[in-house]
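Tokens in:
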């Protein structure tokens, strides 16, 4: 009985870990996609950093960082 309970607990914990990992992966993928969009908008050179920040939801500082990275 104890071994069975431990196995069930371990399976539940693994499932929680998998779900948390998937969530983190999705969040990271979404952030990378937004950053890629911001870089593409910066390359176009039509919008200001403020406009790109508003359009993508990135903080102005993050857009500025991407802007300086693109100039290297």
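Residues out:
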């Amino acid at each position: 009985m104890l071994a069975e309970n431990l196995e069930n607990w371990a399976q539940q914990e693994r499932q929680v870990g998998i779900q948390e990992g998937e969530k983190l992966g999705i969040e990271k993928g979404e952030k990378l996609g937004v950053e890629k969009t911001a870089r593409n908008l910066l390359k176009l050179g039509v919008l200001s950093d403020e406009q790109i920040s508003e359009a993508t939801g990135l903080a102005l500082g993050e857009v500025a960082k991407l802007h300086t990275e693109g100039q290297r």
